[in-house]
Amino acid sequence: MIDVKRCITITAAALAVLTAAAGQGQAAQCGNTAAGFENWKREFSAEAQGRASAASLQALAGTSYSTPTISADRGQHSFKLSLDQFMAKRGAATIVSQGRRMKASNAALFSSIQQRYGVPAGPLIAIWGMETAFGKVRGNVNTLSAVATLAYDCRRSAYFTDQLYAALQLVDRGVITAGTRGAAHGEVGHTQFLPKNILLYGTGGDLNNVNAAMTSTANFLKGHGWQPGAGYGPGQPNYAALQGWNAASVYQQALSIMGRQIDGGAE
Hints:
Blueprint: H1 4-25, H2 37-47, H3 54-61, H4 67-74, H5 83-90, H6 92-105, H7 107-117, H8 121-132, E1 141-142, H9 143-152, H10 157-173, E2 181-182, H11 195-201, H12 210-223, H13 239-245, H14 249-262
Antiparallel strand pairs: 1-2
Helix pairs in contact: 3-10, 6-8, 6-14, 7-12, 8-14, 9-10, 10-11, 11-12, 12-13, 13-14
């Protein structure tokens, strides 16, 4: 005979175990305002035990909700412009003219990069000009706060949670600190590397140093399939590497055009 009371007891116990396991695996609750950020940090830190160090989580505890980051994230309207409008807004002609001078004054650096990574100066300099106006505009937003805010924000929480774990690793390595500042989405250096890209493609050294930034950017493009000597216009083999740098079509096309002009090609 089946012991009904015993079965009910066992079933209830099993459900309790499953409920507890589900609770443990539940992700920290994202939000779209500053109101839940402090609670989210506590939930995230609890989840991150064993994956992030106590020191890096202490750095995370000191972060604040970054309103400039959210404003920038919601205001990327230039990517909806036509190619001509986008290039005019970004000052493409100025980037090309200054870029040619940058290429000449840093000839040895770009020659060594091309020999090692197969990437010519043009696209690297175009990225440099587009991202920070050759290092003049690198941002002044706290990096950890920016990445944590976007990991908490519901719009792209999964993507930036991955970036946040990378940032915590960089804290442990001394690459960034609780005081590091950069662009609004957590990018740092002359060519604006996100934390995970620093881990994957950084070649060592401070990305606020031109040499480190250029070699790391070349390594990124190589890691995205750059083929030495191949073209990088739309439809050519290396265009996919530029697509890896930025998902916006107008940005990719602008890099391709400016890079070729800097390298001496006609458009």
